[in-house]
Amino acid sequence: MKKVFLLILVFGFCQARSQFLRVYFKDKGYVKSNISLSDVQLSPKAIQNRTLRNIEFDKADLPLNENYVVALKNIGATIKAKSRWFNYVLIEGVSSEQLLQFSFISKVEESQKYKVDFAEIKESRSKNTASNLNYGLSRNQIEMVRGEILHDFNFQGQGMTIAVIDGGFRAADTGKAFDSLWINNRILGTKSFVPSSSSVYSGGNHGTRVLSILGGFLDGQIIGSAPKANYWLLKSELESSERVSEMDNWLMAAEFADSVGADIISSSLGYNEFDGGNGNYLYSDMDGNTTIVTKAADMAASKGILVVVSAGNEGAGSWRHITAPADGDSVLAIGSVTNLQNISSFSSRGPTSDGRIKPNVVAMGQAAANSTGNNATVGNGTSFSCPLVSGMAACLWQANSTKSNMEIFGAIESSATIAGFPNNDYGHGIPNFELALYNIIGIDEQAEQWNMSVYPNPILNELIISGSSQNPELSNISIMDSRGAIVFETEGLVDQNEWRIDFPFPKGIYVIRVESAGKFYSQKIVK
Length: 527
Hints:
CATH topology of the largest domain: Rossmann fold
Number of domains: 2
CATH class of the largest domain: Alpha Beta
Shape: elongated
Helix content: 25-40%
């Protein structure tokens, strides 16, 4: 009997020690009415971002009350993670019953294992075509969203900071695709939130492939969507196994991204099932308010960060819908299309369970160019459409850094191909970052100072363009409608002549663009 009883005690003790609990505190012990810079633990870059975009500090920015944390340690709790945003600690080693003695605890939740969707599926191949900027395999995916136009304007992410929350970044420290980031000190730092994996460069290479679409540079093979941005590499997932605290890891990584002043979080991860199938989320939980990772993503957005995530790869499966945190109302969820701009069968569909349109936009995630280190390859998944949009968003935001994250969010959505009539396959469609640029910075601010005029404006039935140049060059003239579709295109010389263009198009807003000898003139026109 004693042996049996001892086994029961040992078994019970092991159960207690293996249980991960989220312990929420009632307060932070803060009594001052106004929160000052000395009260928060944020980097100068984070404070600069908040000041630039008029985001006030609040109690979520305050650190945890360390007296509460110490009290838990004193009863044998091991602290696995801390959240200042939601005022909790993730602990192991004590039972829920032991915690009842503390009046400063508001509630206790049991954390479970989750299956993570890395939003990447079996690879395929695509054609390599030449490009003006030698994009190589990445040409189609960049040009589909008109990203090359921002790059031509030298908006390539300079001064913007992107936090990549992902799995392993194996070979990101040695691969040739990332040489330009290291040489120019654009990798600001790394941090692993996986307790058993201290290095972000160990384990898998999913994060590596994502980073290559953002900041990679292999001339003639692949050029990232934001090749001159700054990056934090944050590892929240161990790709080889499922862990209890993965959603908590994501939250900690997001809080860290906020503390170091990240402008954008790019994360090609999604959650919808528990490991083993017990306690799976339901579609009804994809309401923007249920999962801890969605709450974390929305909180990051409230701090001024543009949060861009994969919609998920569940479109052809029984789940079919988006995964968390793509259901967040302040989260830019990215679906996938093919190189022919058709929706990928695997791309997760909307709506959210409370009826909101998802994904928000789509980009090329099928046969998308990426790299594991030294050469370009291709792969499929919303893992790859997400960083494409994240990087272009950085280039767009660079053009007017005073804009808020949600203004950038809105500009991306409104530039997309079906912005006027979105659906739950394509969302608002494929973004047109050239059109978004014009909306963000104002047409006249970016136009080259040519002796050129476009009139009448508003237009009746004919548009007249006149210009002069001491050295006439062959020019391309194009007109886009409000959805980014080219409705007119021709060539001519910038000289003393006039172009008269019939304008039989419907009433609306258009953008005329003239390109000559590497210079650009753009103007918004109305009919």
